[in-house]
Amino acid sequence: MHRGKIHGNAVSPGLALGPVQVVFTGPADVPTWSVAREDVPFEISRLASALNTAATRLEERQRVVASSAGAKDAEIFAVHRMILKDPRAMSEVERAITEQRINAEAAVKLLIDRFEETLGNLEGNSVRDYAADVSDPWRYVLNVLLERDREEVQQADEQVVLAAAELTPAAVTFLERERLLAVVAETGGRFSHGAVLARSLGLPCVVGLPNLLARLEQGMTVAVDGDHGVVQLAPSEQQVTEFLERKRSIEGRRERLRTDAARPSLTPDGRALRVYVNVESVRDLDTFQLAHIDGIGLLRTEFLYLERSEFPSEEEQYRLYRRVLERMGGSPTTMRLLDIGGDKPLPYFQTPAETNPALGWRGIRVTLRWRDLLRVQLRALLRASPAGDLRILMPMISSLEEVREVHRLFDEIRKQLGEQGYACAEDVPVGAMIEVPSALLEIERIIQEVDFVSVGTNDLVQYLLAVDRDNAWVSSLYDPHHPAVVRALDQIGRVANAAGKACSVCGEIAGDPAMALLLLGLGYDSVSVAPQFVPEIKYAVRSTAHSEARSLAEEVLAQETAAGVREIMERVDRRLLAP
Predict the structure, then answer these.
(1) What contacts 24+ positions apart, CB below 8 Å, involve 241-250?
(2) For residue 226, which of 246, 256, 255 has the smallest C-alpha distance?
(3) Digit-coded pLDDT (tens) for 375-429
(4) Is 506 in the active site?
C-alpha cells in the first residue's frame, strides 16, 4: 500500500478524511489504480464477467444487423466475438492485473494500446483496418467495465473523496453533493470551471498531484488538506488523530463566524460592503439564511435550461422566477440573462463547432441572434417582477450597441405586457457584466446607459491575460493578482463611483476575504460570493476600517508584479486568521 504525502495546488479550502473513489468522467478517461494483492482474483473475475457481457452484446448486435442489412454485413460481429475468445489476449490482460497489480480497466487499456501501436505502425490501410478490428472488441469489454464502475459508485451511499485524472465540472458533479467529502485530481487549473464549481459547492479540493491515481487503491483512506494543497495517503492512526484535531479547530472557527453572520457587513468607521450570494440552481436557495445576506448578486438562469431536455416555456420560467423572488422576501435579486455557449452547451440546441469557444458564440451574442430566446425570458422576468426586487444582468457585453439593443427589446416587451394586461414592477434595474476587455475600455460610455455594473472576473482575467483557464498548459499564468487585473478593477470602480452607479464583483476573487477588502478599498459597494464564504467576508469587513482598505488599495496599485500583489494579500490573510 502506498503511503506518504503528495503536494499539489490548493484549489478549494477545507479538510476532509475518508475512503477514496477513483472515477472516470470522459470517453477517453480510463482510471488506473493499484490493486491489493488479495483483490487480484476479484479483478480477474470482473474481467471475465465483462468479457461475457461484451460477447452477449456483440451477439445481439449481430442479430440486429443481420435482420436489417443482411448476414454478410453482420459477420464482423462474429469475428469480434472470436477475437474475445483468444486465450493469449486474455492471458496478457490477466498477467497485467496480477504482475502490475492494476485494475481490470487499466489492464484492458494496455492491451488495446499494444494492438494499436504494434499493428498501427505497419504499412497499408488494410493492416491498419485490421488493427482497429482486433482492438474494437476489447473496447466493448472496457466500456462494460467502465459502465459498471459508474453504476456501482452512483448506487452506493458511502461518503467518499473523489479522485479523477482531471478536475472538470463532470468530475465535481459525478456524485450528489451529500456524498462528496472532497475532490482530488492529477491535473486542473486553480481557476478552471471545475475549480470554480468545487469552491461554489464548498468542497475541499487539491489538484496538480503527480501520478496520483497510480498510487491509490479503491477505498484507501486519504486526508485532504484543501487549505495547503496536500493529500496524505493511508495516514497512520496518529496522523488521523492530529488531522481530525486540526479539522475540529478550523470548523470551530468557521462555526463561530457563522453565528455572527447576521451582523451587518460594516467597517468600524461606518462603510458598508454589501455581501450577496451567487446561485447556481434552485437547490442553492436552501443553502443560505436570508438574515445572513444582502440578496442574490448573481442568479445564473441557464441552470433552468441546462437541467432540461427542451427549452422551458415562458410560463415555466415565470413560475420559477416568481418562486425565487418570493423566497428572497424583497431582498435585491439579480438574475443574469441566459448565458450559454462556450463551456455551457445545451444538449437540445445545436451550436456550431468552434476552434476557440471562449471567443465565440456565447452569452448575449446567442440571444441577440436568436431573439425569441431573449424575448421569452424577458417576458417571464418582467411578469415575475412584482413578486420582489428584481434586477436584470446582461452577460458577455462587448459593445454599446448590444446594451442599446437589449434596452430596446426590454422597453418593447414591457409595453407589450402592459397592453396585454400584465403587471410589471415600476423599476427593474438593468446592468451589464464587465468581463470583456472592449467593455472595460468602453466603460465610461456603457456606465451612462445601465443602472449598475457587475464584474465577472473569471472571464475578465482570462481575456486580459490571454490565458485559457481550462488549459492545463497555461493555467498557471491565470493570475487574478496580476497588476493589469488590479488596475482594470480600479478603473471600473472609479468610473462607476463618478457616475453614481452601483458596482459589484461576482467572480471568484470576491470569495477571498483579502481580495474583498481590496475591492472595498477600490470603491466597490458589494461582492457576490458562494454562500459558504459569506461569514468570512463579513468578518473581514467588520475587522477592517475603510481607511485601511483604501491604504491597502493604494499599496496594491503601486505594485509592479503579481508576486508583489500576492505578498500583500497573504499578509492580509494572515492578519484575518490570527486568533
Answers:
(1) 243/15, 243/17, 244/17, 246/15, 247/15, 247/17, 250/14, 250/15
(2) 246
(3) 999 999 999 999 999 999 999 999 999 999 999 999 999 999 999 999 999 999 9
(4) yes
Q: 205, 424, 506, 546: which one is catalytic?
A: 506
Question: For position 133, what pLDDT does the model report?
Answer: 58
| Phi-psi category of residue 75: left, alpha or beta, with phi > 0 → left and psi -120 to 50 → alpha | alpha
Tens of pLDDT along 351-372? 667 777 777 777 898 888 889 9
CB atoms within 10 A of CB 479: 19
3-state percent helix, strand, coil for the chain, nearest multiple of 5:
55, 15, 30
Q: Give the closest residue to 514 by CA, choosing from 484, 548, 482.
A: 548
Is 193 assigned a catalytic role? yes
* Closest C-alpha among 250, 196, 206, 37 to residue 529: 196
- pLDDT tens by residue, 86-112: 889 999 999 999 999 999 988 998 988
Give me 337's grid cell. Answer: 440573462
Sign (positive or negative) of CA dihedral 418, 421, 425, 428: negative
The x, y and z cell numbers of residue 133, run together, are: 478490428
| 241-268 tens-digit pLDDT | 999 999 999 889 889 999 999 999 999 9
Rounded CA-CA distance 223/262 in Å is: 32
Would you say 373 and 338 are in contact if contact means Cβ atoms under 8 Å apart? yes
3-state secondary structure of 221: strand
What does the alpha-carbon distance between residue 112 and residue 142 come to, in Å, rounded to a whole number? 9
Q: What is the CA radius of gyration of the chain?
A: 27
Selecting among 193, 292, 481, 546, the annotated active-site residue is: 193
Q: What is the pLDDT of residue 129?
A: 43
Say whether pTM exceeds 0.90: no
